[in-house]
Protein: cellulase
Amino acid sequence: MMSGGNVRVQLRVLMVVIGMMMMVVGRVTSQNYEDALTKSILFFEGQRSGRLPPSQRMTWRKDSALNDGTESNVDLVGGYYDAGDNVKFNFPMAFTTTLLAWSVLEFGQFMGSDLQYALDAIRWGTDYFLKATSIPGTVFAIVGDPYGDHSCWQRPEDMDTPRTSYAVTTTNPGSEVSAEMAAALAASSMVFQAYDAQYSLTLLNRAAMVFDFADMYRGSYNDVFGALVCPYYYCDGSGYADELIWAAAWLYKATNNQSYWDYVLKHINSLPQYIKRMDTDGMPVSGGSFAEFGWDSKHAGINILVSKLVIDRQLNPSPFVFNADKFACSILPESPTKSVTYSPGGLLFKPGSCNMQHVTALSFLLLVYSRYSNDAQRGIQCDNFVVPPSRLVQVAQSQVRLKLSNQWIYVLL
Ligand SMILES: *[C@@H]1O[C@H](CO)[C@@H](O)[C@H](O)[C@H]1NC(C)=O
Structure:
């Protein structure tokens, strides 16, 4: 019953990525891609918590949750609500922000007048994360009461459910939520380098600090928050090692500081080969971790992100490129090592949670990997055949087209 918010936030998280994809394939095109991009980014304004700025376009939304954090003597006003709920879950919110930033880094140049709105959407997240990490040794992870909120259908402007804030600390650590926030801050710092150098530096310094905290005080927030996150909502099923490596990889990309690269190398081989996720009925689904990417597991994202770094910085590509290829081969319809299925209409299906989050996150990675492979002038090695990078774009595009057609609504319902 509670996975509803979870499902819906995935749509929110990833709708925008769809929008980004459309810009890449937009040449084929149509107005539809542009319109979908605009609406995907506009959607984030509907999810805003806090004091809304004059630039707010979705004007039926008003200020809300202006006292968030006061119980803990900290300002936690802002950030995003979790889909249809009024809770702020900082773990998936941070992943959303990391992906928004990655999308802008890759595709911002194609976004036209929507670029400014995408930057605003990122900043709405990072301004809040700066507040959530303003006390050294403390990272705020949740604001609101997941159960009370979920049973109460109120708009955030009127809500009267508790706005308790929950933090992880040095004695009750939560490495996944902290490291994902570090990743979001580091990725966003790269986005703002060209627009606001001072802000970019603030984000980067905070990212380094929060990463140190996440690594030094290791533990899962599952153990700290119990039923507030598990088994529904945002239970971390894949462990926190992937977020730590993911954050280190983003910090390495942002700083070129060798110590982050050493960290990635030191830990990459200890990531589990198989991980468990929950399916929609709360049953565990087990899969090869190289093929996983979403708010919970970052594995495939790590390999693809790093596949570009090893090329640009002339580093040993093992095991990143090998695993990034394996990921791509797990998706391609014609691949002998395919581990997803396709509906008769051609929509990708992968068990576990909301299917559209897989469709969108995996399609995004295919597009990004296609670009990186093109830059490296190499094909993707699947068993005994080689796939040209353009094939990855084709597959991603086939998914985006389905999403823009009416049919995908039925898939969701
Ligand atoms: C690299 O990062 C480490 C860890 O944060 C830090 O101690 C070190 O000073 C940094 N090195 C440089 C050259 O900035």
